[in-house]
Structures are given as structure tokens and as C-alpha cells.
């Protein structure tokens, strides 16, 4: 035997390997030619011919047990036992062979038996360091000692730890078969990545099929080294690789509710249909209270994703609950026996589809939230869904035709109010548009900077078919109607009412032409822009009015047939900008700039009330309205409530006034030390605007519209202030109704009266949170993105950002209206002009590195009560997590406490305790 230092001359190493190992190709730090099996020496007369022939035969000879190059290295030394054909590597030894990699403190290679052995080495404190780490393809093993046969690809690993999917397999001894299967004795399976895991499933026998599953014999759960009686006769744990998705059972959760009895909830099956689609099918069943069955429910959740193309999710849920009301005794008679009320059946559908933008292709998107009126109230655990009464849905396809100015879009829209049961559908709503065209280009003229080159024409075709289950009240300006009603009627949505629903449809087409006459500069500073527009509408029906003198009431019929109506409008606007600069030259503030943007516009719409295609004249003889006024002759609209209804206000000659203000401050920056950007702009007032209009065509009564004012700004980057208000210049009588008299005629110093106002203050107290929100700021979709599916898969497991130590958001809202009665009515107390005054607080506090507490509360000053209040916490326990939520009072009063494994593989390994509005 002899030893070779860690760094030896390459020639001596090759010579030693050739003499000692006879054909084994070993190289230090870089690969050498493939190894050749040992062969007997040949006898030949011609040495040159023999040497040449042998060289060719060696290169073409069949390979032995070593199939490819072995790369190896060691920090301390490498020792060769030539007689025993064993190589020893010491200190941080490493071997790479084919798809195998082995690192350890000590490695031995026995070429007679084709076995690699590796183990760690004790340091000065007696602790074992550099334990063997063995990689075979995608598999990794860490152990105390490894013995591996690189010919048969079988191995035996002592004190082994290997990762299988999201889990880890610990075993006293592991045997690896040639096909990759692993057999373990005295094994432990866990998702904790520590050497001494917090919990594990203990089994005497265990088998792992890499990338597929881990199965075991009888097992029991061990938590904190304390055995528990939790276990079963066998264990099955799917461990799909990152490139493979697996299907499997979803175990239900068990509990009890006061109204529906015991339950099994969220149990079912997950089906990995393909690499792009995953389907989750779950259900729930209730034992019921007394002799009544508690009902059942089902849910299908489909997630799909195609990289660089689209992604989305589809969810449909159905629930049947027992009827919780009992008919009164007086309704039960001998002639009509008691009938048990039917169990309410509810459903909900959610669909979200988001495409990836591709040039030249069509874009399809969907955002759908619709279902039964009472589904969220009866089934949802999400407070936000219960408190949200308005849902909207939209399915849209749009495309721009290549090499053409034409683009089109088709929408299917739906809106639903779960509080009132009103539902409106637009099936379909399409738009065909033509990009602006310049007439001089049609004539083949070259651009020369002439004024007519700014003339342009745009065209849009709109179509709509609306369906609503709400029939509006049949009343018209106080005119008595035959069959009229003062209240709207809601048609229940069912197959039996399809006829009434289709009768309530409204459809129409609209053509719009926008003609721009250019933009011109007057007196060097004024921007003048005239335009003309033309609109026409087409309908398949219209209204027909007939006054019946005998009953002194108006009859309204719907007449079917093709109908056409049109209108036109002209407008011109004049605007400019001017600035005021106030130099300060202070230590931090350099100057303040004030930007003023005044604008004046004029628009004219002719009086089309006398035209037969928009209105029908009706003469009312000796008929008065509810106020005792004679009706006389009236022009009644033919398309009242139809889509694209043309203006029915008669002639309009409007002068519109607008004044916008912005105030900015130029300050010196503290961060800049180079002098390249010594100043920055800080906004003091983002917007302060005033708008009003004056109708010259209206009679002397109320020509001046209300004056609207808006103000918004940000203070110190954290306080957002928004103010909206409306002022009236007219006086009011004792009944609080406006009269034709200006306020300055009564009091010279008073110009306008405050009608309505709204104030909103929002502040984020943590600057770090504000920066995070600015980075992650994205525009919201049509629906509320926080609602998602009606029943979340795991409603208690939200993402927790521990990088922010604390956050506090405060929001104050106040709304004022002077249109409420000034004097109290009979039997009523005085009404406050403030319709809404509320304060909302919310945020999170990072107690420790692993514990975070969140809170939401508020106070309604109008009703003098605390608003929705919730306190929740999250504790990270490495491989486990504890989350809880407490609602101290209110309709949804209760609490929830959950401790669960963080791994999605063991998502059913959890303990939940709750008292909610379902089982309180």
C-alpha cells in the first residue's frame, strides 16, 4: 500500500492507477478517458504492430462495470490499496459518477465488489461532521453511513433522511432497490425539515416510491416526542414530484351545528386532470335536528392555467338546507292538513378568467359572481360576502381586425342585488368601432399643415338586449294610469316565469358619429375645440298612449314593429392654463407653484319633443294631477326606459363653466448628496375644482344648475383627504322646496347654500406599509377580488407578511344632506342632516418574529353603535401554524381556533374549535 497527497502530479497518478488498478480511469479535479476492464497481456513478435493494434483494441474493447467517467476530490489525502483495489478519500471527499453524487468526510471505493461506502468523522468535540449526502438523480439522502453498489444500483443507508415530495422520510435503515423503490425500517414520515422533527408519523415498516407515494404499515402520530393514540392500520401519502401532479382523496372535517346537527364537511376527491387543469370535488352532509334531515351540499372547484396564454378558476356550489320556519297553528285546519315547508335550495357560481396579452389576437376575459339570493347568508363563512349585497358579472371578447381600423367587442353583463332580489342581464351588449378617419386622406391629398387636415370622423355601433326581473312602477308624472302601480314588482326567477321575464326585455341599436372639427389656438393662449355629434337609435317596439276620457286615465300599450329615432348635438370648448409662482428661498422650501385651468364650453341640443319619432302629443281635457294642476297638452316619450333612450328634456342650450386648481411645492431633498437632483416636487393640493352650467333654453325657472365642488389631496404622504359638495343658489320655502329666487336677493352676503357634502379621511400610520402598497398597487377587476370563490378551500389560512412590524389604517367618513325635512313630522323626532358618520380602524401588530395580531373595528356615530369588530392572530410554529379569529358581538358573533400543519400535503391534519353563528 501507499498513500498519495491531496495534490499529486498527474503523471504519477496515472502511472499508479495503470499499474495498480489495471484499466480503471480515475482523475483528480478533471475527467479522464473511460475506464477499461483488466485484460491478459498479448504476445506479439512485432512490437510496433502489436502496440498499434493494442491501442485500437483498447479503444474499441467492451466496457466493464464502470460505465462512464468517475470524478473525485478530497481535501486531506487520497490513499490507494493496489492489492485490494480499494481507494480511500479523506476530509470533504466528493465523488461524481453518472447521475450519482456523494459527499462525506470519508469515502471508500471497492472495485472488486463495486461498492461505495461513506461516513462522517468526529470533530474535536466528538460531534459527527460532514455526514454523507447522497444524490441519485432527483433523490437526496442524508445519513450516518452509506453502502452503495454502483453496478446493481442497490444500496443500504443507515440513519437515513430523504425528501419525498413535500415530506421527509427518516429511517433507522433504508434499502434502495435498482428500480428506485425505497424500503425503510423503523421509519418516520414528516413534513418538518428539522433533524429532530416536531412531529412525525411513526411506523415499523415503510416503503417509498419516489415521485409517487409513501406507504406504511400500522402507524401512530408522535408530537413533540410524545406518542399519541392517533393512527391507523396503514398509511398512504402521495408524494408527486414537481413535474407530476397527483390525484387523491380529501378527508372531511367533523363538527356540529345547532340548526343542522352533526356534519361532515369539505370531503371529496382532487383530480389532476392534466398538467393544466385541476378539479376539486367536495361535499357536505348534515345529520339534522330531531326528525328532520339536515341537508347536504356539494361544490366543484376547477383551477386551470396555460403559461403565456391564460389562467382562471371556475367554482359552482349547491346547498340544500332544512326549512327553519313552521306554519302557525291557525293555518292548519281539518280540511287542509299541515304541509311541511319545502327546504330552500340555493346555488352560487363564480368564474374568473384572465388572458395573457398577445399582439394581434382576440382577448377573452370573464369575471362572474351570481347565484341564489340567500346563498351567502345561509352558507358563507366569509363575513365580506355576507355584507356585500351587490354583485356584478361580465364576460367579454374583444378584437382589433388586423390591417383594418375596425375593432369590436361582445359583452355579457349581469348585476344582482342579493338584498332586494333584483337581477339585470344584458345578453348581449356589443360594440363595433371604427378608428378616427381623416377625410383629406380619402381624397389622396398630401399633408400640408392646413386647417382641414384636423377634421376627423369616428363611428360606433352599439347593440343591447336587456332582461330584468324587476317591472318598474307604472306611473308617469302624476298622470293616472289604467292598471298603474305605485311600486315596482319583482318577478321570481324560475322556469315557470320565463314568459313574463322575456316580456320584460328591452333591446335596441345605436349609431354614433363623432365629428371633430380640429383644435385651434386663439390669442396665443386659448385652446378652441368645436365638435358635432349625431346619434340614431332603432327599436323593435315602441309605446302607444291613449287617453280614456270616461275613466280619466291614460292607457299605455306596447306596439311591435321597426322604429327609428335620431338626434344631434353641437358643442365647442375654450380652455387654457396659467401659473402663479411664489418664490420663498427657505432652508427646505424653494417655491410654491399654483396651476389654474379654467374652461368654458357651449353645447346645443334642439327641441325634438314635437318630432313624431321621439314623442307623442296627448291632450288631457279637464284632468289634474295630484297637486291640482291642469295637465293640458303633454309630449310623452315613445321609448321611455328603452336602451339608448334619447334625451327627453327638450331644447338645451348649455353654458358650462369649470375651474381646476393644483398647488405644488418645490423642496430640497435630504437624500441627494451629489447635487444632481437637489429638488423634488411635493403636491399640496391635487385637485380643487368648481363646475356649474346655465341653460339658456330653459324657462326663467331654475336655469342655473347646482354648483359642484371637489377637493382632494395627500398630507405627509399618508393622510388622504377627499371632499365632494354641491351648492344651490336658490332659496327654499318652509317645506324645504326650492323656489325661483336667488339667495343673494334675500341676503346679499350669501351666494349659495350647501345642499350635499361628503368627507373621507384615510390615513396609514406606517410608512413602511405605504411603500409596500405602492409597489404592489394593481388595478382591481370588475368584481371584488377579495371575495373569490363562495366557499374558500381553507378560509383560515391567509398570507401573513412578517416583514412589516405593525400597521394601522384609519378611515373617517361623513355625509351631509340639507334636503331632509327641517321640521319634524308627526310622531317623529328631528332628523339629523348627517346621513352617515363613521370611523373605521384596522391593522396588524407584530408581537414577535412568529406572532402577529390583526384587528378591525369601528364606530357609527349616526346610530351610536360599534360597527363590525374582529380580532385575529397568527402564530408560526415552523412546520405548524395556529390561527384564530374572534368576533365579540354582532350578528356573526363567535370565535374560531385552528392548529394545522403548514404543508399542503397534510392540510387535513388540523384541529379546529369554533363557536360561530351556525353553532353558537
From TrEMBL:
Domain LPS-assembly protein LptD central: 214-730
Location of the region described as Disordered in the Swiss-Prot/TrEMBL record: 768-791
Pfam families recorded: LptD_2 (PF19838)
PANTHER family to which the protein is assigned, alphabetical: LPS-ASSEMBLY PROTEIN, LPS-ASSEMBLY PROTEIN LPTD
Protein name according to UniProt: LPS-assembly protein LptD
Species for this entry: Hymenobacter guriensis
